[in-house]
Design a protein that fits this description.
Distance between the termini: 19 Å
Radius of gyration: 32 Å
Strand order of the largest sheet: 3-2-1-4-5
Structural class: alpha/beta
Shape: elongated
Number of helices: 24
Order of helices and strands: HHHHHHHHHHHHHHHHHHHHEHEHEHEHE
């Protein structure tokens, strides 16, 4: 039943030779890897406006124009930089991989921690923003945001991605293009209305701004920091170059430029229309919802934009599902994350990374109650730290390679590094009290975790290494010893009989150990044992405090002290397996507890001998 359900939800296993079929062409990759960046126009400009009108006493709405232009400039710079990263590092891994090649371990780990935080926030923010979009259109859903978020993360994003890259891309590609169609129709009709109506393109109230001072500068910079959330997800393509069809690097570069062009156009267009219609933040209603209602009214086109926005914001989280598992697999291969994250699952996806991402995003969503504005406060600083590291790495790369036009390329990446460093400082200052401090603590914590994991793997490799000189000198000749077998016995039963029969095939030194909680029960077991006479010595240990596990451990430890260094101790645990799963609930789990307690003992081998019941 479980296997049938697994096949129904995830699908049949894929052969290794089918990996080539899982690669994506550019038109699919654009929707899969760019949905986060492209969908951010649904909340990026709104978050900028929200910061500008946060304080009623200050008139700062008019700073939206320079804020938008500054964001556009940074977007162009970052897009060019990540196109160069994809070209220089076709193996994927983005800022982490390129930093490890050119800057060393510590900058690479900083980039890894930053991108990890960014991807988890991408999943949480995108799903929360999608729910906000649909709640704006259907207010009756208010109050159920967290439940909707968790259901989407588990039942849609996790399950669909576990089915494989090809299937997830087929499911998610069309909603992304449906959203793009809706936004460009909105921009076209909105701009037509703006240029044909007898009203100013930008009304005076949208241009109103008081003279720049320290207070207004801080607010404008915070609006810029909020608006920079529109650039999250740009690194996803460079992280996932191996998932493109050949030539992978060239296709990834082309997709990066196409994504940046579409995003820049939508960002400028939506910001212009928000200024034209003087959109102000409203409780429980998104700015894009207000804009759609101004342009279309409550017609079917309004609902088309809202529903397609909801879907694409949900699917924007899929950028994280495609980018982070690949990145985790690369970090795991380097030994900084658990190695099982580098293993592909039955459907050729990094399924362990997908599950880990889902659990982290669900935890964040529950903690922050699905509030997009609160999650946005954590956003962007991590990704811009990784942007900066990537661009500094590229400067070192060009200086080392010194190919054609290397000086121009290095200067371009150097300018990008300077720009993104300024953004990091701005975000760190303006959002510090709003949650940026959490990410500033999270990144050093993750570096500590990375190093601890690598330290463990290094220690393990050192202890498991088989020196070649041992083999050459003959030091690895086996010195055979005895195998002392202990069989815990509660009472002579059929399962004990089968276990002793197996034990005798391993060694002649077999001991049946009975832990007696009182003398009366002990005598009954001894009498039964003598009548049966299996040819195995029964040792009885009295436990007046009715403990079973500890006396067994004490006996094994005493035996360990008496044996020779080359000897082994094997504990064979007789255990019956009920026919139905719920039957197990009717029995204690002593065998499992004994196995868990003994498995950590040195030179003690623990095995369970199952006896399957048929009724």
């Amino acid at each position: 039943m479980v296997r049938l359900l697994r096949r129904l939800l995830i699908g049949k296993p894929l052969h290794n030779q089918e990996m080539a079929q899982e690669k994506m062409p550019k038109w699919k990759a654009l929707s899969i890897f760019s949905s986060d960046a492209l969908s951010s126009v649904a909340y990026g400009p709104e978050q900028a406006i929200l910061a500008l009108v946060a304080l009623p006493g200050l008139i700062t709405y008019g700073y939206m124009i320079p804020v938008t232009l500054a964001i556009l400039l940074v977007l162009i710079t970052v897009a060019i930089s990540y196109a160069q990263v994809a070209k220089a590092n076709p193996g994927g891994g983005g800022s982490y991989a390129i930093a490890r090649q050119n800057l060393g371990e510590m900058p690479a780990l900083v980039a890894a921690g930053s991108v990890l935080a960014d991807y988890v926030l991408t999943a949480a923010v995108s799903v929360s923003a999608g729910t906000a979009a649909i709640v704006s259109a259907f207010p009756a859903l208010t109050g159920n945001e967290v439940i909707l978020d968790v259901l989407v993360l588990f039942l849609v994003l996790m399950l669909v991605n576990l089915r494989g890259i090809r299937e997830s891309s087929s499911v998610f590609v069309y909603p992304t293009y449906a959203f793009l169609l809706g936004i460009f129709v909105l921009l076209a009709i909105g701009c037509w209305q703006a240029f044909t109506q007898a009203v100013p393109l930008i009304p005076p109230q949208s241009l109103a701004r008081q003279q720049l001072d320290w207070a207004t500068l801080f607010i404008a910079l915070r609006a810029f920091a909020n608006g920079c959330s529109s650039m999250t997800g740009i690194e996803a393509i460079a992280d996932s170059v191996p998932l493109f069809k050949k030539p992978a690097a060239r296709n990834a570069v082309a997709t990066t430029y196409l994504m940046a062009g579409i995003l820049g156009t939508m960002l400028v267009g939506v910001s212009f229309l928000m200024l034209h219609f003087h959109i102000m933040p409203l409780q429980e209603v998104t700015a894009l919802s207000q804009l759609s209602e101004e342009i279309f009214g409550r017609t079917w086109m309004y609902y088309y934009v809202q529903i397609s926005t909801m879907i694409v914001l949900y699917l924007a989280a899929n950028t994280a599902y495609n980018g982070l598992p690949v990145l985790l697999s690369i970090i795991a291969r380097d030994g900084y994350m658990p190695r099982y994250l580098a293993t592909r699952g039955e459907r050729l996806t990094f399924s362990n990374g997908i599950i880990l991402l889902t659990m982290a995003a669900v935890m964040l969503t529950i903690i922050y109650k699905g509030q997009t504005e609160d999650l946005i406060s954590l956003y962007a600083i991590g990704v811009f730290i990784s942007f900066t590291i990537a661009q500094v790495s590229m400067v070192v790369h060009w200086n080392r390679e010194r190919g054609p036009n290397w000086l121009f390329r290095a200067a371009l990446n150097g300018f990008g590094a300077l720009a993104t460093t300024i953004v990091v400082v701005i975000i760190g200052i303006t959002k510090f009290l709003y949650g940026a401090w959490i990410i500033m603590l999270f990144i050093p914590f993750m570096i500590w975790v990375f190093k601890k994991i690598r330290f463990h793997y290094n220690n393990m490799a050192e202890q498991l290494h088989l020196p070649l000189e041992w083999l050459e000198s003959g030091e690895m000749q086996f010195k055979l010893g005895k195998n002392h077998i202990v069989v815990p016995v509660a009472s002579p039963t059929r399962v004990v009989f089968e276990t002793l029969k197996y034990a005798k095939t391993l060694s002649a030194d077999v001991i049946a150990l009975h832990i007696a909680t009182d003398e009366e029960s002990a005598q009954k077991v001894i009498c039964k044992w003598e009548r049966w006479n299996p040819g195995v010595k029964l040792v009885t240990v009295y436990s007046p405090y009715r403990l079973v596990i500890q006396p067994l451990i004490d006996y094994v430890e005493a035996l360990d002290k008496q044996k020779q260094p080359e000897d082994y101790i094997t504990v064979l645990i007789p255990e019956f397996e009920p026919k139905k799963w719920w039957h197990r609930l009717l029995h204690n789990q002593t065998g499992w507890i004994i196995r868990t307690a003994l498995i950590l003992k040195k030179n003690v081998i623990v095995a369970t001998i199952p006896y399957h019941l048929h009724k």
